[in-house]
Amino acid sequence: MRYAFFPGCVLDGAASEAREATVKVARALDIELVELPGWTCCGASHAQDVDELAALAVNARNLALAERLGLPLLTACSTCTLMLRKAKAALDGGLKDKVNKLLAAAGISYAGTATVTHLLWALVGDYGLDRLRARATRPLAGLKVAGYYGCHILRPPQVMDFEDHARPRSLAALIAALGAEPVELASARRCCGFHAVFPAERDAFKMTGAINADALAAGADCVVTPCPLCQMQLDMRQREGKAATGTAGDMPVLHLAQLVGLALGMTGGELGLGRHVTPADHLAAKVGGR
């Protein structure tokens, strides 16, 4: 398996532990990630609000760069996946020629052959859960994990069409394949509030706190999410979320690759668990690691 890897800005900076875990996990699973040369920010829905055509051209260029490599484009960020897939839908829906005129100045064009996937989808759909289960050298027995999807990896369903957006099962299936116990989370598909912090801080922190409170009430040892923005909001803003909802108790929040890495026998240090704001490095010891 070989992919053009689009790290995106968050994995390249604030959530560098997610990038490192993704690369280590891919290597351990014999998945080759070829970093997309010259990639640029997807806009993260903010650039799209300012200049929709410019943001479309930026992502058309990212897609065209993947076409040059002849590889499917893979991200480990739900928002990057959504922006790139929305761009592809718009280009394939009739804007390709218009945008290619803009890209001509850079000597590149989008042909329409690019495909975009997410790490979660690649592991579940391409790699396969039976194969992943067989590679789990340290099954996560005794660990209760709440899978949190957030918004962007599920909606809009006509763009993010990997699974039933109203009843997603991929995270629970992956958690079980790693030997952990999936914990149902009533708020698994609700927004974490990340993109609403600046315009509606109070409401955003209530949303954040409600998800962590839900995981605490369900008896989870940790939450795992396929989106680094959701991870940052649920981890970094956990203190504000607890204050907004009157909740006590910490809830570790892991990136998807970190949970997979634990099952592959990696240490908490290798996976960057100690870099989280809410303590998470004790989880490695709980599953028999360090």
From TrEMBL:
<protein>
    <submittedName>
        <fullName>CoB--CoM heterodisulfide reductase iron-sulfur subunit B family protein</fullName>
    </submittedName>
</protein>
<feature type="domain" description="Cysteine-rich">
    <location>
        <begin position="145"/>
        <end position="235"/>
    </location>
</feature>
<feature type="domain" description="Cysteine-rich">
    <location>
        <begin position="3"/>
        <end position="85"/>
    </location>
</feature>
<dbReference type="InterPro" id="IPR051278">
    <property type="entry name" value="HdrB/HdrD_reductase"/>
</dbReference>
<dbReference type="Pfam" id="PF02754">
    <property type="entry name" value="CCG"/>
</dbReference>
<dbReference type="InterPro" id="IPR004017">
    <property type="entry name" value="Cys_rich_dom"/>
</dbReference>
<keyword id="KW-0560">Oxidoreductase</keyword>
